[in-house]
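From the shared-data thread, chain only:
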Amino acid sequence: MKTVAISEFKARCLGLLEEVKATGEELVVTKRGAPIARVVAVEPAPSLEGSVTALVADDELIAPLTDWDAG
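Structure, as tokens:
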């Protein structure tokens, strides 16, 4: 875990964020020696593939409505 003073974080913010992204190492920002924030890399979202179960067949979804009365 890397620690950086808030003044340095302000001056090098974009570079430090890229470093966290590249290394995955946590960064703690301090103010007068006391931790005030923790910067961590974002984990990728899990895939949603296969997470939905269809209860009807595709043909049923697009079948015409023959009994429908608009009137």
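The chain is about 30% helix and 20% strand.
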